[in-house]
Amino acid sequence: MLAAKLPCKETIKVVEEPIPVPKKGEVLIRMKASALCRSDLHRYHGVALFDEDDKEANITPGHEPCGIVEELGEGVTKVKKGDRVAIYLGLGCGTCPDCLRGDIMLCPEFRCIGFAVNGAHADYMTIPEENCLLLPEGMDFITGALATDVGGTLYTACKKIELNGTKTVVIIGCGPMGSGGILMAKGFGARVIAVDTDEERLQTALDLGADYIINPCSTDGPARVRELTQGRGADAAIVTAGGDIPLNSALNSIRTKGQVALIAESNRAVIDPSNQFVRTLAELKGCWYFNRGDWEEISDFIVNHEIDMKKISSHTFSIAEAEKAFPLFDSGKTQKVVFVWE
């Protein structure tokens, strides 16, 4: 089979290797779609994101996959050959309180496919059967792949900040995650104000359904948000761009008792706690991936609300073209890049 590897910094190689054999409790997945993620680029640039020993160049990246169950390992009972599945990216201990309630990403022993073990940028992969997420009827493979990291994370964020048809939300950062946020927020019925410094991404935001766009390079973002909300500020904000400026923009754009969902990765930020929290009663909520038990709710929401996740996929490649796909995605000039198998 073909698999993409990261033998050294900013280098991708596609190699031939044996099809893996599922161990006890595992299944073999024949890949149908596998999306590139910004996290993949941390390995591409030689930076580990999950505190893993990332020196093993033989680990196949990829943690947003979708495919078909091809073979069952010993003891597998929850899925069957031929099932169409997306893959939950987290591997946990299985016994801690976080794992037991489905929040695998919070497990003290959390490991991520594509970082700690072989991931999905390959023709086949093996995975524990409990990581298989059955696709509903009507969901294609590309949508299934995008419904995990992007769809699941942004659906969870929209729920955490209690979006509905009466709410206005500011989405700061209109890359793939922010674009997914626009789709999800509109599915919840909210009015969306999209903020980005890139005019092409702002045009994409409009195409995805954003009601208003703001470029903070030419406009005072929080002031414009207040103009659009009769001086009150937005009910909520979703931050998908990293750094001080986007986070502060979100906190300064929301009304009193507003809520901010923070998705963007960042090591530190300087804020004004007294004026942005204490005297506003604002809430800042961390949002990282989704509870495994919520998959049916998430996938049904996407299907029933006819949310076209494929609108945020700007390019598709075969796995044999991985050497082209990684640098293109790294350029920042794309939305989601997805490997597909016919």
TrEMBL record:
It comes from the Bacteria. Residues 10-339 form the Enoyl reductase (ER) domain. Its cofactor is Zn(2+). Keywords: Metal-binding, Oxidoreductase, Zinc. PANTHER family: D-ARABINOSE 1-DEHYDROGENASE (NADP(+)) (PTHR43401:SF4), L-THREONINE 3-DEHYDROGENASE (PTHR43401). Belongs to the zinc-containing alcohol dehydrogenase family. This is Alcohol dehydrogenase, propanol-preferring. It comes from Lactonifactor longoviformis DSM 17459.
